[in-house]
Amino acid sequence: MSMGSMGVPTLNDFPKLYWAVVGSAIGVATLVNMFNYMLYRQRMSAAGTGHTRPAKPSSPFFIFNASLFAVMREASNFSARIPVKSRLFRLPTVGRTSLIVANVVVIVVLCFYGFDLNDRWKREDIAYRCGVVAMAQFPLIFLLAGKNNIIGYLTGVSHERLNWIHRWCARCLLLTTTIHLGYFFADWAPYNYIGTQLRENTLMWKGVVAWAVLIWIVFSSMTPIRGWCYELFVLQHLVSFSVLIGFTYIHTPAEMHIYIWIPVGLFFFDRVVRGLRVLYANISFFHPKQRSAGQMSGLWACKAEFTPLPHKTTRIVIRNPPISWTPGQHVFLSCHSIVPLQSHPFTIASIPQDGIMEFLVKAETGGTKRFFRHAEKTHGLSVSSDRSCIKTVAIEGPYGCLRPLRQFDSVVFLAGSTGATFTIPLLRDILQGWKEKVNSEQEKSLFRSPKGAVTRHVRFVWVVKSKGQLGWFAEQLSAVCSDFETLREKNRTIKLEVAVYVTCDDSFTEEHKSLLSNITSPNIGFSGEKKPQRGNVEFRSRTPSLDKNDKIDPKEGIEEITSTTEAATCGPNGTCCCRTTVDEANTSDAMAPCCCGANPSPRSLSQLSPSISGPKSLVHPIISVISGRPNPRYIIRTSLEQALGESAVVVCGPQGLVADVKQDVCALSDERAVHKGTGAQGIYLHTESFGY
Ligand SMILES: Cc1cc2nc3c(=O)[nH]c(=O)nc-3n(C[C@H](O)[C@H](O)[C@H](O)COP(=O)(O)OP(=O)(O)OC[C@H]3O[C@@H](n4cnc5c(N)ncnc54)[C@H](O)[C@@H]3O)c2cc1C
């Protein structure tokens, strides 16, 4: 197969050209990742030497980079919204779209470069060219698929965040193979030769089978179909791509087989590394220290306790975990005695210093529902009982990475419902940094994470469906606030604001796993049918912020407003208060009782408990508990206005919340003209929505 003429590379060179482009893109992303890491070390060391604004670029080189990043972030996070009746249809972000369009452009150029498309005698040549360009794409698809992801390690992007590119690359491969097949058919059609080829040319029908399997893979990987029965999807996906690889192998000439062997190698590399990680994390013999300390016995290292929580949520706790992790990471957890042959990703809600690995798992319709049922059935049974709530579990991981948040001047966390499992450990990590700073722990080593924190200001927002959910993290949040108060006595520059919003607006708390998941409700009040409620209780803290000098007695800080009158409406203009966007500037105003039934039981905050009948706990009084949905743009803006350097916005929750925050950050970056001479500093945005 050679075709070089008039400056056109030979056929076998085209895969190399494709990889020259893809490799350059990965190279640039790797350089950006290395630059970010260097910036982190530089900021942390500047903070250690007493620099007052370590997160603010000062030299022309860093100012230029900050401006470049600001423009790129603003453009790449932008996504157009099309109003459809009373709903908004969100298009994918410009960043994602441009990556895929760039891939398609490269593929199309490589497929057709140097050909006269009107020349019917060139159709077969074009078909062959498309075939080799298709082969070049196999390694990329496999590189993007693994959990132990080489591209991920180089670029600092976690496997689950690369998964959508994996799917789109497969669609691009389908496009290329369709053109490949189409040009052969177009070449043979004038002679009625297609049928003969299909009957007699074995190479031909092997290719057609591979193409048909690829169509099936692309179709079955679409979001609603993939989510329908995830375990079945994974199984058939493995079988389908084995068939695809097999038929492609026998369809292609030997010189192209390298593009088959590389993916096969990548697949087994990932599986072997995963296997080794699973063995290390789950076999107790690999952890002799914990065994000799009596923290582990028997073969298996991980035993977990299942506790039912309000809102069909299960708290799963592994004591003395055999592995360490960084806040924000997740593991794949399986418990074969409850849910055989399944493993699900869950974010670790604790930090390593706790000595436990904790997860909060919302019951969906599959394995997570069975976890909850088990927790309900066994709750309160003794450990020695046959149906004990303690079970042997297996973990795989940890996976996931994000830029260390301690390097940012100000950090805004926004979480919806179980999204707090992601943001709370990150909040606690910053607090840990403040503790290290106050205690002047400055261990310097190239290979250790620097101690301390650049961060001065943190705003933590958690949106929940009812006050019952607040109990999930009441203890952790209260402990954070108490620790902060102690730290602030020694370091007056730090500031923490914590607010919990109780809202009945599902787009901020519930994931809608439907075909229309990218349709969101506009940010307006709701005037639907109301269910008047008697005797509701609303709580609010005495002040919305923790930026104060004096301590407050926890019990004094909580006010209870009760009502025994039937409420027809509790928000403005006939809306429900817990669905309307809160007027952030006036959150300390007294709130009316909620009328929609989102907070149905008149509970006192002192009744909020981490488990259904576990120990009772109070939330710290300086945590604002507000009825209504937050106004992310206002919250982020107020944080940015006081920032003395680059800020980070971290959001984790349903698509609705994540999309709103993305749009708000884009708009604020534009409005404030970040790094465009106004003095406004950069905004780093990290989004998580618990899905691939
Ligand atoms: C990185 C990450 C972190 C997560 N952290 C948490 C957390 O801390 N708390 C929490 O409650 N949920 C978390 N989730 C979501 C959680 O993994 C799913 O809700 C859970 O796997 C659903 O299991 P199920 O069998 O009950 O699901 P089903 O009801 O069968 O399906 C519900 C949805 O979950 C998806 N899903 C099912 N199994 C898997 C799987 N093995 N891997 C990926 N997706 C799957 C399906 O595609 C479907 O969209 C996280 C997800 C990811 C990707």
From TrEMBL:
<feature type="transmembrane region" description="Helical">
    <location>
        <begin position="168"/>
        <end position="191"/>
    </location>
</feature>
<feature type="transmembrane region" description="Helical">
    <location>
        <begin position="232"/>
        <end position="250"/>
    </location>
</feature>
<dbReference type="GO" id="GO:0006826">
    <property type="term" value="P:iron ion transport"/>
</dbReference>
<dbReference type="Pfam" id="PF08030">
    <property type="entry name" value="NAD_binding_6"/>
</dbReference>
<keyword id="KW-0812">Transmembrane</keyword>
<keyword id="KW-0406">Ion transport</keyword>
<keyword id="KW-1133">Transmembrane helix</keyword>
<feature type="transmembrane region" description="Helical">
    <location>
        <begin position="135"/>
        <end position="156"/>
    </location>
</feature>
<dbReference type="InterPro" id="IPR017927">
    <property type="entry name" value="FAD-bd_FR_type"/>
</dbReference>
<dbReference type="GO" id="GO:0006879">
    <property type="term" value="P:intracellular iron ion homeostasis"/>
</dbReference>
<dbReference type="GO" id="GO:0015677">
    <property type="term" value="P:copper ion import"/>
</dbReference>
<keyword id="KW-0325">Glycoprotein</keyword>
<dbReference type="Pfam" id="PF08022">
    <property type="entry name" value="FAD_binding_8"/>
</dbReference>
<keyword id="KW-0472">Membrane</keyword>
<dbReference type="Pfam" id="PF01794">
    <property type="entry name" value="Ferric_reduct"/>
</dbReference>
<keyword id="KW-0813">Transport</keyword>
<keyword id="KW-1003">Cell membrane</keyword>
<keyword id="KW-0560">Oxidoreductase</keyword>
<dbReference type="InterPro" id="IPR017938">
    <property type="entry name" value="Riboflavin_synthase-like_b-brl"/>
</dbReference>
<protein>
    <recommendedName>
        <fullName>ferric-chelate reductase (NADPH)</fullName>
        <ecNumber>1.16.1.9</ecNumber>
    </recommendedName>
</protein>
<feature type="transmembrane region" description="Helical">
    <location>
        <begin position="94"/>
        <end position="115"/>
    </location>
</feature>
<dbReference type="GO" id="GO:0005886">
    <property type="term" value="C:plasma membrane"/>
</dbReference>
<dbReference type="GO" id="GO:0052851">
    <property type="term" value="F:ferric-chelate reductase (NADPH) activity"/>
</dbReference>
<keyword id="KW-0249">Electron transport</keyword>
<dbReference type="InterPro" id="IPR013112">
    <property type="entry name" value="FAD-bd_8"/>
</dbReference>
<dbReference type="InterPro" id="IPR013130">
    <property type="entry name" value="Fe3_Rdtase_TM_dom"/>
</dbReference>
<dbReference type="InterPro" id="IPR039261">
    <property type="entry name" value="FNR_nucleotide-bd"/>
</dbReference>
<feature type="compositionally biased region" description="Basic and acidic residues">
    <location>
        <begin position="528"/>
        <end position="553"/>
    </location>
</feature>
<dbReference type="InterPro" id="IPR013121">
    <property type="entry name" value="Fe_red_NAD-bd_6"/>
</dbReference>
<feature type="transmembrane region" description="Helical">
    <location>
        <begin position="17"/>
        <end position="35"/>
    </location>
</feature>
<comment type="similarity">
    <text>Belongs to the ferric reductase (FRE) family.</text>
</comment>
<feature type="transmembrane region" description="Helical">
    <location>
        <begin position="203"/>
        <end position="220"/>
    </location>
</feature>
<feature type="region of interest" description="Disordered">
    <location>
        <begin position="526"/>
        <end position="553"/>
    </location>
</feature>
<feature type="domain" description="FAD-binding FR-type">
    <location>
        <begin position="296"/>
        <end position="405"/>
    </location>
</feature>
<dbReference type="InterPro" id="IPR051410">
    <property type="entry name" value="Ferric/Cupric_Reductase"/>
</dbReference>
